[in-house]
Every structure is written in structure tokens, then in C-alpha cells.
Write a structure and sequence with these properties.
single chain, 349 residues, alpha+beta, 60s Ribosomal Protein L30, Chain: A, Phosphoribosyl-aminoimidazole Synthetase, Chain A, domain 2, 2 domains, seven-stranded mixed β-sheet, four-stranded mixed β-sheet, 35% helix, binds adenosine-5'-diphosphate, binds magnesium ion, EC 2.7.4.16, kinase, PurM-like_C_dom
Amino acid sequence: MLENKDQSRTSLEELGEFGLIDHLTEHFKISQKTTVKGIGDDAAVLSFPDTHMVVTTDLLIEGVHFDLSYVPLKHLGYKAVMVNLSDVYAMNATASQITVSIAVSNRFPLEALEDLYAGIQAACINYKVDLVGGDTTSSTTGLVISVTAIGQASGDTIVGRDTAKSGDLVVVTGDIGAAYMGLQILEREKAVFKVNPNNQPDLEQYAYIVERQLKPEARKDVVNLLASLEVLPTAMIDISDGLSSEILHICKNSNVGCNLYEEKIPLDPQVISTCEEFGLDSTTIALSGGEDYELLFTIAQTDYPKIKANPNFTIVGHITDQGEGAHLITRANTKIPLVARGWNALNSD
Ligand code: ADP
Ligand code: MG
């Protein structure tokens, strides 16, 4: 359906491991002054004088985290970097370097890896991070990608999950639930394609949600915006597994409770209409769908005037004492306990 129709195929064996690494990484440029030495030695050398370093890593496995029948490799490369940068930004830090490790079977031609690295490079350029190393090995089955992101922040501006306070406001950036509904569209089109390979999907009316699934953007802009508004969140996390599970992480780690308001949850109209089409409840999708890579944070009430008029932010609730538990207040004004159900749990329903 969306797979690469390019006919040219160069076998990986022709290049060998070192030829492959050179070929894939030759167009990457170093732009960060904290990168002393990048690719090409036994290890990269980085220098972060007087700051705290932030390090995060993620592992993506074909068939578990992605399906190459509808995920173009260029998008996969981009998304693999976004997933990691999002974790750096969720610490209120800036990202400066990544490493990329891949395990790949011989069924992939060189051109496929070129697509993957084109996506990685686009992410590096857009987010101003240097690719400084990685590892390359063979796999007997599918593709495995592991990205590590490195960033920095001064110690007193780093924001964890464990410092939310009773009375704080709960804020979500952008809108949520779209990436999960984009996945539903792609899964449906895959099923249609299996029955009729000549069917060309018309994804026009789902463009936003499909893009949110295939090409998420990490919220670097929010970290910069918060700094310019002089707002230091009291706690922050990125929304990779759905609003419910993320707010519960903050509540558990901070020993607090929360009330979220159903009517406040920011949803794109395409999420609402696609949920109607699939017979799904859009609030459930926002709470339990995943992969939006928006930020969820808490702020002191005194910071409310600084963020209230900003279209990037929606206040969805407030933090309470731990004893009150974590609840959703529905439109009908009933109070239901929040449960952690990531998108994997939702998928296996
Ligand atoms: P070593 O044998 O010391 O592990 P490698 O031959 O694996 O070194 O790697 C050589 C250089 O290329 C190192 O700088 C390494 O970080 C980099 N590198 C290897 N694989 C990748 C990759 N997939 N992407 C980016 N850089 C890589
Ligand atoms: Mg190596």
C-alpha cells in the first residue's frame, strides 16, 4: 500500500559493515559545540561544562513497535528520533546528540537503510542534534532500531515526575488521541489492501491523524516557550502511552491525586469524527491511546496568568491530595477513577 516501489536494490553484503556505516553517515554534519568528536572513533567525545547531562534510550522492534507494511522507512527513522527527543524535552532539557544502533536482516536492500537514515537526518536537522555514533549488526528476522538521546539543562531547571503539589494545575500541550486514531486508519487500510491490492487508499480526510501517527513532532518548542514565559513546571512527562497512564505516573511519583475534566480534554475534530466512524469513545481514546508525544505538566496556580491565553496549552484539571485518588470528572458530572491502560492494552481488546 504505502511501501517503497523503488526497484533499485543494492545488497548489504556488497558494502560490508564498515562500508555501510560510512555510506549511511557520510552526509551527517556536526553542529553542536558540545560535540568534541563524533562518528569514527571507538567512542564519541562530548563536553558539557557546568550543566547536568540528560540521557535517554528507546528500543523499537519490527512487528512489536512498528509495521513496515504501512510505515515508510523514512518516517520510521524520523519517529525513532522523535520518541527519544520527546523524553529529553519532558525533562525540560535541550537535546544535543543522538546515537543510533540498528540490527538488520539481509532482506533489506541498501536503499531501504538510506530511506531510514534520510528520516534520521531530517530529524537531526530540524531539531539541531548531532548523530555521534551507534552500532550496526545483522538480524536473523526483522529490523531493530535503538536510539539514545543526550541533552543538557542546568540542575535547577530540570523537571521530573515526582514534584507535583496539591493545588497545582494540570496542563496538556496540543491535542491528544490523534496518533492512535491514525493507527486505526492505517490498520484498516492494510486489511483492505490485503483483500484488494489494487485499491488505492484515499487518506485525504484523515490526513492530520495519519500524520500524527507516522510523523510525530517532539515539543521542543514548548520547552523554549515555557522558558520565555518564565514558567517552570512543577512536574512534567511526555504523553507516549495516553493521558491516563501519564498523569498516574505523576500522581504516583509525586504522592498526589488529581481531578481531570472530560470536557477540557483537547481533541482535534478529525479525532472526534473518526471515533464516531469507528464507534469509539473519544475520551477513552484520549485517555488510553498513545504516541501523541505531547507534554503533560503541572504548574503552580500563581503561574496561571502566564499560560492561560496561550493556544498551545489546555488546562485539563488540578492536582489534589493523594488520599483523594485520581479521577476523571465526566461531562455528566460523575467522578470515575482513572486507570492506566496504554495503547497496547487498548489494542488487545
Ligand atoms: P566499534 O567496533 O568500536 O564498535 P564500529 O565499527 O561499530 O566501532 O563503529 C565505527 C564508528 O561508526 C563508531 O564511531 C560508531 O559509533 C559509528 N557507528 C556504527 N554504527 C553506526 C550507526 N548505525 N549509525 C551511526 N553511527 C554508527
Ligand atoms: Mg560497534
